[in-house]
Amino acid sequence: MSDAPAAPHRDFIRELIDADVAAQRNEGWVITRFPPEPNGYLHIGHAKSICLNFGLALEHAPKSRCHLRFDDTNPTKEEVEYVESIQTDVQWLGFSWGKHLHYASDYFETLYGYAQQLISKGLAYVDEQSPEEMRANRGSLTAPGIPSPCRERSAAENQALFAEMRAGKFKEGACVLRAKIDMASPNMNLRDPVLYRILHAHHHRTGDAWCIYPMYDFAHPLSDALEQITHSLCTLEFEHHRPLYEWLIEHVDGLPGHPYQREFARLNLTYTVLSKRKLLELVKDGLVTGWDDPRMPTISGIRRRGYTPAAVRQFCETVGLTKFPSLTELALLEHCVREDLNRVANRVYVVLRPIKVVLTNYPEGQVEFIELTNNPENLEAGKRSVPLSRELYIEADDFREEAAADFFRLVPGGEVRLKYAFCIICQEVVKDAAGQVVELHCTYDEATRHGAKPVGRPKVKGTIHWVSAAQAADVEVRLYDKLFTEPQPEEAAGEGGDFRQFVNPASMEVLTAKAEPSVQHALPGALYQFERVGYFCADTKESKPGAPILNRTVALKDSFAKGK
Ligand code: ATP
Ligand code: MG
């Protein structure tokens, strides 16, 4: 990757790993993994985990690597579509797993062997209690659990039953394999957790080979060990699972690696939800057009919206790692997006809500071309010629019929500068029968080109953008806004409430705008700054050169920087 953040902040995870490297733990190797369950599309929260895990591998090269491993142990919720989208997203963020694309399902046979091993050691048993009985006998935070009547079965009997489970002799729910740890542990995860359950379900990779599937808590640490992961980094909700993780690493013999787990706080972002399950609800209910709707916080959504990988990496770097839950402002993410787009997006002139201006003293039929810099932040982006003629469009809200002390743009009789052209004076406001302004008749002053001040008239305070009418391209513009009206939709809905009630009904507005000719040929994915308006991106799915559709990535105004 060419432009990874150069010097990541120090944080408790990095300090821990540095200490391990200094102590030559694992001979100084740092091997991490990003372990998604392929049950949905990745979101911006996952980007934090991806940047951490893959970032650490880059920082510790050459004695390092990061694996992409699909934790595909739940066949009923997983799909190939998700597996593919996750790979696309990780690569888009700029990371590579090299040869290390793995699936927990590749280890099913090995994991089965480990389970047999635990049974032989008297550390696992087949439990035939009903799911209700198991729940009832689990105890509570104040009461210890009640041991299952099956708990003291012999290893031989357990082996036979486990083999029958695998052979499909039982219905779903008839029995499970449990670890034999401690029914009185204050940590509920150690009260004989389930290791295997019966699921007569087709798996997207193993087909119908299995009807028992390992639980995440069993498969995850052992998959880490099999891949010789050194540091298994996950979010705080797994903290209480850590003792089980360690118990398995300790009690299964012959593991090729001895990873340990550490937890960091997940990313929470205002005006959105970061949970695949909830995002799936939005998709299923048709509240968005799909996982890659540009309003979605999914990686595929923000990619379509025009967010850049560099901006997302910078955001993750800025947010940093902590041990405590926190809420990050969406404005910070947008700030990072703007900073990057300011560097890379070419400037163009687009008028979103046009009103026509006729320059009555400009020769009819004449067209001149004004040479403009594509990107003042990057002169290598070159220049383009923008036509200018007698009839133009300006933004309707750059004109007001009533003058006001704080309004410096066009008013009747007033003067304004057309950016990179000259100053114009509004001589006449033309209205239709209904009293709507349809046209402004203006005169231009040749002497005010190249920034020259008007002579004998007051100083011109306002500068506005414009598009020449005859050559203007009609382009579809989709103005996106926050997906939710509440900063914390889940909290606002409360326990048992429905976060979907806070979906912002005004989160998308579609306009036909007037653009300078170059925009007509926008390639899908092209990034622009519409001068004075905002950052936009040609939609990668529906936009075509000749019929462009432009998504608003982010408005120009940066409330975050101002608030700092
Ligand atoms: P979700 O709740 O959205 O379904 P998940 O945690 O179930 O997310 P996984 O596929 O299991 O999703 O996640 C893969 C990795 O991404 C895990 O290590 C998880 O800790 C991490 N992750 C998930 N959500 C976030 C988040 N909001 N911030 C940081 N890391 C996250
Ligand atoms: Mg999960």
Fold and architecture overview:
By secondary structure, this protein is α/β, with parallel strands linked by helices. Among the domains are: 12-264, Rossmann fold (3-Layer(aba) Sandwich), CATH 3.40.50.620; 353-472, Beta Barrel (Ribosomal Protein L25, Chain P), CATH 2.40.240. The chain has 14 helices and 25 strands. It has helices at 12-22, 44-59, 80-92, 108-120, 131-136, 155-166, 216-226, 242-251, 276-284, 299-305, 309-319, 330-344, 489-493, 559-563; strands at residues 30-34, 64-70, 101-103, 124-127, 176-179, 194-198, 212-214, 231-235, 260-264, 346-348, 350-351, 354-359, 367-373, 383-389, 391-395, 415-418, 423-431, 437-445, 463-464, 467-468, 473-480, 508-515, 527-530, 534-538, 549-555. The strands form 6 sheets. It has a 7-stranded mixed sheet with strand order 10-23-24-25-21-22-11. It has a 7-stranded mixed sheet with strand order 19-16-17-18-12-15-20, with no helix packed on it. It has a 4-stranded antiparallel sheet with strand order 4-5-6-7. Helix 2 crosses helix 11 and helix 11 (309-319) packs across helix 12 (330-344). The protein is elongated. Mean pLDDT is 96; it is low at 1-5.
Give the overall form: elongated
Q: Give the low-confidence spans.
A: 1-5
Strand order of the largest sheet: 10-23-24-25-21-22-11
What is the CATH T-level topology of the domain at 12-264?
A: Rossmann fold
What kind of sheet is the major sheet?
A: 7 strands, mixed
Estimated radius of gyration:
31 Å
Average pLDDT score: 96
Number of continuous helical runs: 14
Measured between the Cα atoms of the first and last residue, the distance is 31 Å
The secondary structure category is alpha/beta
What is the CATH superfamily of the domain at 12-264? HUPs
Query: What hetero molecules are in the model?
Result: adenosine-5'-triphosphate, magnesium ion
Number of strands: 25
Helical percentage? 25-40%
> Which CATH top level class of the domain at 12-264 fits?
Alpha Beta
Strand content: 15-25%
